[in-house]
Description:
The protein is mainly β and about 190 residues long.
Amino acid sequence: xxxxxxxxADAAGLEHLRYETRPLSAESVxxxxxxxxxxxxxxxxxxxxxxxxxxxxxxxxxxGASLRLLTDGEGRWTDDDGAPIPExxxxxxxxxxxxxxxxxxxxxxxxxxxxxxxTLSMAYVxxxxxxxxxxxxxxxxxxxxxxxxGRFCYEGLTSGFSAEIPVDSEGVVRDYPGxxxxxxxxxxxxxxxx
Length: 194
């Protein structure tokens, strides 16, 4: 089990992620502020042995809203009741707006060599609204994954946003310039007689 903490670059908040790599599964709690609105969510996701997302859930601690998505790993999605979600057809990965972790999913799954790129359809989950839509994103490998990590260029083809993303040796985002920074050391202070 791996633990990672991120904080937003320009607002109050914190994410605490725990994940396993074989096969990839993760769960996390995110506290943050979006458009002046505070939110608290929990998300969990599971991937198959090829790194394809198979299930994702997002729960709001604030209003009790929840989202459950299932996929066959081939790009067909359903809700928790098994009803098809045709607007997500072709999406192999999920991108949850409140976390940098979901950018790691295609980076790990694609295993791109230097200079290679991939354009993908993603199931995008907006937080705190928990609304889902399909968006197009492009990943370009600048430095492939090795024991020291790697570097990738992300382009949001739907939004027009782009960033250079450094990752660790597991393909997990280190920092997301302008949005998130990884907190590797946490200072703890104790008071009283413990």
